[in-house]
Specification:
Layout lengths: L2 H29 L4 H34 L1 H17 L3 E3 L11 E3 L1 H20 L4 E3 L4 E3 H7 L1 H4 L1 E6 L6 E3 H15 L5 H13 L5 H10 L15 E4 L3 E4 L5 E5 L4 H6 L1 H7 L6 E10 L14 E11 L9 H4 L3 E5 L1 H5 L5 E4 H6 L6 H17 L6 E5 L11 E9 L2 E10 L3 H10 L5 E18 L1 H8 L3 H9 L3 H14 L1 E6 L4 E6 L3 E15 L2 E8 H12 E5 L6 E5 L10 E5 L4 H16 L4 E3 L6 H9 L5 E5 L4 E6 L4 E6 L3 H9 L5 H7 L2 E3 L6
Parallel strand pairs: 3-10, 12-14, 24-25, 24-26
Antiparallel strand pairs: 1-2, 4-9, 5-6, 5-7, 8-9, 10-11, 11-21, 12-13, 14-15, 15-16, 16-21, 17-20, 18-19, 22-23, 26-27, 27-28, 28-29
Helix pairs in contact: 1-2, 1-8, 5-16, 7-8, 7-9, 17-18, 21-23
This protein binds adenosine monophosphate.
The site of adenosine monophosphate has 15 residues, from strand 11, strand 16, strand 21 and helix 20.
């Protein structure tokens, strides 16, 4: 916890005790009918102490708000953003005329344009620049695929139910809300309690269902709407179930992610790529998750666009040839150890983070760097972007390392991109289930004599000892690496048995000598056949767009100072409309000139809007600022026009003929505004603004 906050909480609790003690003293004096001057003096002291207490309270409140926790400021800010977004149809609650459905939203015209710009930059930045193979697979997926991937059994969130009404809530969200609200609104909690709540917030992703249930009980958390008691947490599968075809005999699901479509196509894609690794495949498409109680607007929805990359790599060589391109980047990183010890995210150099092993390997590091560049070029504030490493339990047992790109918004830090080294889990799972080997080969120039580790679990003995858990134990034994296996062999030989942790059972079992044979055999090999590892950056496009809305939003006072005007400072790259064209006054010549410019803008692919309403130019600027339009062309003569840049409000004058090409150069990033400002006659236009 912040040192100032801690000392203020300490001081507030001391002041509260003093006020209470003095209050008791006053009451005692009154009860004993003490002399009036004595009572007055005691009351005066009580009032003084109350004033001191309220000063500390104010200071503590402003410290909490100042450190970005001020829920009041955040809520007011969010309201202003969301009102503007809904009013200008960036998005619309779906099926609104029928009262809508929680967690489903439509994108309106500016929202669609922004989404299309974000996706086309994503294609440019990843698919094109990294030579990825794009695929487009169906949303409806047969059960067998999602059974193999583990989603049918494990794609769950923990749910609690209001014991009386049956209303469902996400268990971790209730605990998070409780801790956050206590920290922000309850100034009376002690410094120790505040530290404990902060610790719970930092490590709750790591909680087991039992730990989560125990905390909910310990804190006396009840159903938010009714205050009724809650059930114990239990898992709820988030997939929407369906069946394929009229017979209803082929069970299926709406895909909860796009990745599985890529994995099942691995063999064909590997051949398409000339049987060479590494390579990456990518997919943009809809994903469906039946979220338990979606409450965070566009951030937690039941249908959303995912953009996913599966980068297949040799597990023995996770270096990346382009890593030096990103190695010098420095940004906020939040490694596991810092989270567990209650520290905050810190600026790290990516190259060092990989060199010191904080990030598991270069390829994972490379994608972290590329995601950072992607998000900041879109307009995400780099001070409100951090890469948080998954805690040990949070990460799937097969994963080598995972980092989430989290963006700070009025809802707190939100995971927008997950970047995981999923090792060989997915391809192995689909190989096992389908019987089709999803493997890669490395041909040796010369045959190699290799010593191969052979682990042979003795299924009969394991079956007798572990019954229904036999399969988990066998899988864990087979998954041992050489070091682990040789260590086990040595212990079995010396002691006859060994304690062995089975990840999928989350417990130790005793392995006896007759249950497994471990040896090394010499063989001549012409090639190495292996299951590639996969590194997966997974982008929630809607979350990124919402955070972008918040990071680009600001208000400015109108010229008369009587109202606040909204501005979205979208970079030209994402702005839904790049340029507006205004005839300064309503006359035929200016309108004709505006039409000529509009035609030229259309021919160079620049989205734009003509505004021929007779309202003041300042009002028209204000209207377009609200849509985040970065440039405005004002036609004020038949031969030349002005171009105004939204953020500086500066204007340049260019000939009518040049207008479209100048706007297109700056909108597409071929020139900066500073370049064009220096090349054309210019002046500041603030005077014209509303
Ligand atoms: P996951 O597969 O759970 O790591 O999710 C991948 C990405 O999808 C996350 O980083 C989020 O950006 C996004 N995402 C997950 N769930 C939702 C949701 N309910 N609504 C919107 N975006 C989501």
């Amino acid at each position: 916890m912040d040192a100032t906050e801690q000392s203020l909480r300490q001081s507030l609790s001391e002041k509260s005790s003093s006020v209470e003690a003095q209050g008791n003293a006053v009451r005692a004096l009154k009860a004993s009918r003490a002399a009036k001057p004595d009572i007055d003096a005691a009351i005066e002291l009580l009032n003084k102490l109350k004033l001191e207490k309220s000063a500390v309270e104010k200071e503590l409140q402003s410290t909490i708000s100042g450190s970005g926790n001020g829920s009041l400021n955040r809520e007011a800010f969010r309201k202003a953003v969301v009102n503007t977004l809904e009013r200008r149809l960036f998005y619309i609650p779906s099926f609104k005329i029928y009262s809508g459905v929680a967690g489903l939203f439509d994108y309106g015209p500016p929202g669609c344009a922004i989404k299309s710009n974000v996706l086309s930059f994503w294609r440019q930045h990843f698919i094109l620049e990294e030579n990825m193979l794009e695929v487009d697979c169906p949303c409806v997926t047969p059960e067998v695929v999602l059974k193999a991937s583990g989603h049918v059994d494990k794609f769950t969130d923990l749910m609690v139910k209001d014991e009386k009404t049956g209303t469902c809530y996400r268990a971790d969200h209730l605990l998070k809300d409780y801790c956050t609200e206590k920290l922000e609104k309850d100034l009376t909690i002690s410094a120790d309690k505040a530290a404990e709540l902060k610790d719970v917030l930092a490590v709750m992703e790591d909680f087991s269902p039992e730990q989560l249930g125990a905390k909910i009980k310990e804190y006396g958390i009840t159903a938010p709407d009714t205050k009724n008691p809650l059930s114990d947490p239990y898992p709820f599968n988030l997939m929407f179930q369906t069946s394929i075809g009229p017979s209803g005999l082929i069970p299926g699901y709406m895909r909860p992610e796009t990745a599985q479509g890529i994995f099942v196509n691995f063999k064909d894609l590997y051949y398409y790529n000339g049987r060479k690794l590494p390579f990456a495949a990518a997919q943009i498409g809809q994903a469906f998750r039946n979220e338990i109680s979606p409450r965070q607007g566009l951030l937690r929805v039941r249908e959303f666009t995912l953009a996913e990359i599966e980068h297949f790599v040799d597990p023995e060589n996770k270096s990346h040839p382009k890593f030096p391109d990103v190695a010098k980047l420095e940004f906020l990183m939040f490694p596991r150890e810092e989270q567990m010890s209650g520290q905050s995210a810190k600026k790290l150099c990516l190259g060092e983070a990989v060199a010191t092993g904080t990030v598991n390997n270069e390829t994972l590091g490379y994608f972290i760097g590329r995601v950072y560049l992607f998000l900041t070029r879109l307009g995400i504030d780099k001070e409100r972007l951090r890469f948080r490493q998954h805690l040990a339990n949070e990460m799937a047992h097969y994963a080598a390392d995972c980092w989430d790109a989290e963006i700070e918004s009025s809802y707190g830090w939100i995971e927008c991109v997950g970047i995981a080294d999923r090792s060989a889990y997915d391809l192995r799972a689909h190989s096992d289930k389908s019987g089709v080997p999803l493997v890669a080969e490395e041909k040796f120039a010369e045959p190699k004599e290799v010593e191969k580790l052979v682990i042979t679990p003795v299924k009969k003995e394991l079956g007798l000892a572990f019954k229904g858990n036999q399969k988990n134990v066998v899988e864990s034994l087979e998954a041992m690496n050489e070091e682990e296996a040789m260590e086990m062999k040595a212990t079995l030989e010396s002691k006859g048995e060994v304690e062995f942790f089975v990840c999928t059972l989350k417990k130790n079992v005793t392995i006896k000598k007759n249950m497994v044979s471990i040896s090394k055999e010499k063989k001549k090999e012409h090639q190495r056949v292996f299951t590639p590892s996969v590194i997966e950056p997974s982008f929630g496009i809607g979350r990124i767009i919402y955070c972008l809305y918040e990071h680009c939003f600001s208000t400015r006072p109108s010229k008369a100072g009587d109202e606040q005007l909204n501005v979205f400072r979208f970079p030209p790259l994402v702005a839904p409309i790049k340029c507006t064209v205004f005839p300064l006054v309503q006359n035929q010549q200016f309108e004709e000139a505006a039409k000529v410019i509009s035609k030229e803008l259309a021919s160079v692919g620049i989205s734009h809007k003509i505004d021929i309403t007779g309202t003041s130019i300042g009002k028209r600027y204000a209207r377009t600022d609200e849509l985040g339009v970065p440039f405005a062309i004002t036609v004020d003569s038949e031969t030349s026009v002005t171009i105004r840049e939204r953020d500086s409000k500066d204007q340049i004058r260019v000939s009518l003929k040049e207008a479209a090409s100048v706007v297109s150069s700056v909108a597409e990033g071929k020139m900066t505004w500073q370049d064009v400002w220096a090349s054309f006659p210019h002046h500041s236009s603030a005077a014209l603004d509303e």
